[in-house]
Design brief:
Shape: elongated
CATH topology of the largest domain: Aminopeptidase
Helix content: 25-40%
Radius of gyration: 28 Å
Bound molecules: zinc ion
Distance between the termini: 56 Å
Number of helices: 15
Amino acid sequence: MSRRPVTLPFPLAALAVLAAALPAQSPFANRHELPEDRAEGGHSVTAEQCKQWLYTLASPEFEGRQTGHPGFRKAAEFVAAHFEKLGLEARGEDGGYYQTVPWSATEIDGEHTFVKFEKAGHEPLQIPAERLSGYVAAAESAAGPVALLVITPAEPPEPPEPASDGRRRGFRMPEIAGLDALDLANKVVVAYLKPSDDNRTNAMVRFSLRRSLAGKNAAAVLFVQQDEPEGNLRGASGSRRAANPAAAGRRRQPGDTTFGGSDLDSFLALAGLDKKVLEGAELAPAIDLQATVEIATEDKQAPAMNVFAVLPGSDPNLRDEFVVIGSHLDHVGMRGGLHPGADDDGSGTTGVMAISQMFASNPVKPKRSVLFVCFAGEEDGLIGSGYFARNPPIPLESIVAELQMDMIGRDEEANAESRTTAERNEKAEDNRDTLHLVGTRKLAPALHELCLAKNEQAGFVIEYDQEGMFGRSDHANFARMGVPVAFFFTGLHRDYHQTTDTPDKIHYEKLLRVASYVYDIAFDLAQADDRPLIDPELWAGMRGKGSEEPAAPRMDK
Ligand SMILES: [Zn+2]
């Protein structure tokens, strides 16, 4: 018994069976009718399947999918296995589904890492790597006389008043009185921060100290504390792009290698100092010790890959042209607790998995080829898609459009980035049918028109008020090279980049509806005789262009 007396087009039987099997609020109810040539594939995915994929992507086991970390590799293997199960073509390295993105993980070489304190006529104190903790940006090898600093935390200045957009700017760091006057050149600084009850104060004083010491030409900087250090020395991980100023900047900042507990007692004993010195007001008590700091690291390629697969086109004349369907696979990981990233961008990756199954299951194979890709390093600055655009596994000229899904599983509502009164009054329940279309009016009018035409069936309330988000997801790297793009986005919400962006808050019917809409657009792009052309005026107005000429053909040439 079907729910609604409907005149079902071909293929009837399959649809009727599926519709009957699903819960009342079947996703079919929401999903627009698909043209006959693509309906069977389009209806081969259920909201329940999407739920299973997204719960896996957002699971603790994937540790928030931070690029360069084991959780990201698990997510990449999960998506690659999906592509393989669908029989999609592997065109990556070694016949696989990966394009490795240079990403270095600085690993600590424990065998050659230690801190040593010496005093003539005394047994030296050598602290091995396993009794050190902290974050290491680069290898370090230094020696020199010790300068002990005893830091009394000053109350951080009151945070500035929020500006009209609700944001606070111009935080001032707590000053460390007397530090400027000290000559610490070529010395090994051992800094002891008197603990304050407020962790924010501790963190800000530590940050302020590291920044102030950056200009003092110290040979090395170490921190010492009362308690045994927690955790180990951790290396940095980041995109291995020589020109990456962020990486370079990170390398210049002193590390925060820390020792403590019983090693603090041994350190003071060797120096002949009483523990009371750590309670005194004196910033730099006299001390007579030599120190050697050896932090050895190894740079290794960390887990960072774009995961992609191809459905070859059926037309020999058009199969060397591609429709690209993308999302980003990564999220921010475990910084400050597990960040599941269910909506950002677990929902988009689930969309890519859904659409790849739609195409793979559909009897009619479109003329052009379709490339499905989940990028790495988006949260670190669109790194994976930037690498893909600079080292494309298929010619950029052959890409007729890049369709990007990033956050397609929720309803827009007021959030931390809301600026205007209207934005602050956004309610999720008012946005059940809302979808933002971003970037479609930037390059190729035909793509914009196609999206609008297809929405007549999809039935979304399309909004264009988020062009400000244009540069904030992977499609931007394609647009800059002159590839037409369409970015699909259901809007920001209170859980954006929070540990609360969890899979139980996702609207799976809506997610599947967006995926079906994108599938329908992609199918048309892959079937049409003509491809969207670049409007020369729009191209001329495009900021941050990555090349003189657009990769896609222009209207005027
Ligand atoms: Zn995102």
